[in-house]
Amino acid sequence: MNKLIIVLIIIFTPLSYAENDVDFFGVTLENDFFFNDDGLYTNGLIATWGYDDVERLDEQALPDWLAYLAQKSYLNKQQDKRYAITYTVAQLIQTAIDDSVEELIAEDSPYVGMLAWEGQLTAYDHLTLDRLTLILGMVGPVASAEFTQTAVHNVVDARDTRGWGNQIGNEAVFRVQADRLWRIYDKTLGNTEFDVVSGVNAGIGNFRSDIGAGVGLRWGQELQNSFLSASAFPIQKLNRPQHSPNGWYFFVNSAAFYVANDIFMNGNTFQDSHSVSLIHQQFSISTGFMVNLYHWSIVYTLFQQSAQYQGQNEASRYGSITVSYNFD
């Protein structure tokens, strides 16, 4: 697994460019132990770094192949915008709700491990934000999810997860996603502020294809200066609130989605594997806070989602904590 992570970083993401040194680096832990659960989406280990204020999306700021795609996109054609670039590598783990059984439980969620790279390009001002995201990765035993979960359980003295022999097979996955956010309302409340952010997004790929709409509420300070970190959507796999070097705020986000396919529920695309019957209409909500302490940013989030498959007998919920260091 470690070798594959290194290869993904070397191929896709040089850490700096001649005109742009990295502005921030962050680490995220997502886990259901925040709710004292262990099942469904159970763990995510994520590293994120990037550039907060880039003049142009060109070869000076991006790998040549990604700069070519950016220059062909609508992001580079917008006027009077600021740009940001974010890269992520992650390992994501999902198990059955009843993970104490070694035999396959057909009506329970599949065992899935995923190792992924993500690149995000953002164009924004103080009222609107457009973001394009590309996700490339692998699911299956190559992601070493069983090894990671076993190691963590040994450290915390948790019981063994016994169903990894039923995990889906190796498969390359991708997703292309577009987001649009609007800061539609803001109000000063003493020495604090309140705002409302609405948004739509859509994505396609064998990782997941969906379309959604959401709304986010924030209360804190320097909300206009931290709009880059705002979201109208609860955290999703590889899509979570961004860091910000400015201010602090509490937030609540809620969204509705129509999900056409999801490899974490549908199983492998091109070979037989365990799968469950996907529920296409899904809803989610999250709440949390973002705070800056000197050069450090902390984002803490609690997330809950409606049922993702027919017969699901337990809610999908987990917590997330991100700690980032701002080099500026």
Describe the structure.
The chain is mostly beta strands. It has one domain (2-326): Outer membrane protein (Lipocalin), CATH 2.40.128. Helices cover 11% and strands 48% of the residues. It has 4 helices and 12 strands. The protein has a 12-stranded antiparallel barrel. A hairpin with a 3-residue loop joins β7 (192-204) and β8. The mean pLDDT is 89.
Total DSSP E strands: 12
Helical amount: 10-25%
CATH architecture: Beta Barrel
Q: Looking at the structure, what is the overall shape?
A: globular
H/E element string? HEEHEEEHEEEEHEEE
Please tell me the total number of domains: 1
For the largest beta sheet, what order do the strands appear in spatially?
1-2-3-4-5-6-7-8-9-10-11-12
* CATH topology tier name: Lipocalin
The top level CATH class name: Mainly Beta
Mean pLDDT: 89
Query: What is the CA-based Rg, rounded?
Result: 19 Å
Structural class: mainly beta
Unreliable segments of 5+ consecutive residues? none
For the termini, the CA-CA separation is 32 Å
Q: What share of the residues does DSSP label as strand, in percent?
A: over 45%
Number of helical segments? 4
* CATH homologous superfamily classification: Outer membrane protein
